[in-house]
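Reopening: C-alpha cells for the calcium ion complex, inputs below.
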Amino acid sequence: MAATILIVEDEHAVARGIQYALQQEGYTVALARSGEEGLEIAVGQAPDLVVLDVRLPGIDGFEVLRRLRAAGSKAPVLMLTARDDEVDKVIGLELGADDYVTKPFGLRELLSRIRALLRRAYGDLADAVGGRVIRHDDLVIDLERRRVQRGDRRISLTPTEFEILRHLASRPGRVYTRSELLELLRDYEALDQDEKTINVHVSHLRDKIEDDPSRPVFVQTIRGVGYAFAER
Ligand code: CA
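Re-run output (same inputs, fresh job):
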C-alpha cells in the first residue's frame, strides 16, 4: 500500500527532512505549511495519515486536529510537540491524536511510529507493496490479492460479491445499473440472468461490509437506477 502521508509543518527544514525520509520508504507525501492549508488538504485528499506539528502560524495543530475530527476524518494523526511538554501531549491525545513525537526526534523513530500507526489503522495491508488498493475510510480492498478488510478485520466475500465491490469501488460515484452489473459478471460466473440476482448479492455484500446494512455507507442504492460506491 503506497500510503499517502500529509505533513503539516511550517519549519521548512523539518518538513523537508520528514518528506525525504518518507519518500525514500515509498510513501506518497503532501506538504502543508499552515494549519489552514493542512486542513484543506486533509479534507480534500483524505491522506492515510497526518503528521501534525503543534506550533503553527494561524490556527495551531490542536485546532487543526479538532476540526479534522469534527469533519469526520479517522486518519491516524501523529503530533509533533515542540518540547517535552506534558500538557501538549495530554491535550493532543484528548483531542484524538493517535501518537506524538517530541522534537528534536530521529527520523528512524518517526518512521517506526508511522509504520506502527498505519499497521494499527489498516492491518496487514499497510505492509503490502505494489498492486492496487482501494481504501474508503477503514474499508480496504486489495484488488491484486482479492482481499477485503475493515480496519484489521478480514472480510470473506464470495467471488461474485468481490466482483461487484471491485467494479463499484473502482469508480466511486459512477452509477451501475443492475443489467450492467449482470453483464460485467457474466464472464465471471454463471449467474441467473434475472436482475433481482444482483439485489441478492448486493444485500449479502452489505451484510458483510456495512455497519448497518439497512443504512449502507459504502454501497449505495440509486433509486430506480442501480448502485454506486460512495464518493469521498
Ligand atoms: Ca512549527
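Helices lie at 12-24, 35-45, 61-70, 86-94, 107-122, 159-170, 178-186, 195-209. The mean pLDDT is 87. Marking as resolved unless the reporter disagrees.
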